Amino acid sequence: MLRLAGSYLAVFLAVIGALSVLAYVLVAANFRSMLGPALDTPEGAAAIASSLRKVAGSILLLDAALAVAVGAASYALARAAVRPLVRAREREAQFAADAAHELRTPLTVIASVAQAAAGDPPAAPRALETIRERALEASALIGDLLTLARSPSARNLAREPVDVAALAAREARDHETEAEARGIALSVDAQPAIVDGDERRLRQLLRNLLDNALRHARASVSVSVAVAGRDAVVAVADDGPGVPPEMTGRIFERFAKGASSDGSGLGLAICRWVARSHGGEIRLEAPSRFVVRLPLGNYPAVERVEREA
After folding, report:
1. What is the predicted pLDDT for the residue at 235?
2. Residue 281 has pLDDT above 70, yes or no
3. Residue 105: phi, psi to the nearest 5?
4. 197 close to 233: Cβ distance less than 8 angstroms
5. pTM for the complete prediction?
6. Residue 182's CB: how many other CB atoms inside 10 A?
7. Dist CA 185 CA 42 (whole Å)
8. What is the DSSP-derived secondary structure letter of residue 240?
9. Which residues contact 23 (CB under 8 A, 6 or more apart)?
């Protein structure tokens, strides 16, 4: 950054130096043309020399003030220009560190299972199934880490009109079997709410919230979608113990999870990424209630819903 600022300043100093020399030469030539006869006397020569020294001093003082101002501006400009690159490198470094840390476990399991199966042929089918599951787990983890390595920007979305209520109902149906197996009542109350969004990413957000709720629920999970002003409001709540108070400030950070959680710790971080990339936000509004707000799209269906409400 300092080198870049120095380059900006050097270019400016070269230009202002050339202009200052040109200005001094022009002023000196103007003095000589006006006071030509007086230059033949010692007094005239001394007077013009003194005047030119004052002119040179004034030019140098002005150049110094400009150099200080431009130096500060160059530093600010260089900092602004380098900041996106610095952030990109930080995200790359974080991605590499996270991938190395999280992939160690599934890869170790794959290696150990393969080694054990090599000496026990009858166990090969079971070992292959374990390897397949762990490989899929590692692949999903890499996908989540790659998502979080990107900036949460609308440029990373394939946007189209999406009814969040329909997505919520579909995701709830996909989770019904799991909920029944655990003896959990899963309820949905969804009003139409159309946003300009990426359907795949929004399904991922809802899936992660439902996975999280079912993982911690005791007997019930509720999903609601409503329209509030110009926002679609999605709420997912469960009757579990809730987020521990010491974790509420970092629950949406990557790998933030409680001691009793068996997830990867990336689900809620993905939810925040998806919400922010859509211009919305996700918050923990109660120990076991997550609320997502997404801006509604400008579609006739949205206006009808608002009039009916």
Report:
1. 97
2. yes
3. -65, -55
4. no
5. 0.58
6. 14
7. 108
8. S
9. 59
Rounded distance between C-alpha atoms, residue 259 and residue 158, angstroms: 36
Cα torsion at 155, 156, 162, 167 (round to 10°)? -160
One-letter identity of residue 48: I
For residue 301, the Cα-to-chain-centroid distance in whole angstroms is: 31
CB of 154 within 8 A of CB of 279?
Answer: yes
Tokens linked to 280:
């919305």
Does the pLDDT value for residue 46 go beyond 60?
yes
Residue 125 reports pLDDT greater than 70: yes
Of 194, 204, 268, the closest CA to residue 231 belongs to 194
What length does the chain have?
309
Higher per-residue confidence, 133 vs 259: 133
Taking the C-alpha atoms of residue 76 and residue 62, their distance in angstroms, rounded to an integer, is 21
Contact between 299 and 194 under an 8 Å Cβ cutoff? The reply is: yes
Alpha-carbon distance of 231 to 292, in angstroms, equals 9
What sign does the dihedral 85-90-91-93 (CA atoms) show?
Answer: positive
Residue 4's nearest CA partner among 82, 85, 86 is 82
Which of 232, 242, 176 is CA-nearest to residue 205?
Answer: 232
Q: How many angstroms separate the CA atoms of 154 and 70, rounded?
A: 35
pLDDT band at 308 (very low <50, low <70, confident <90, very high): very low
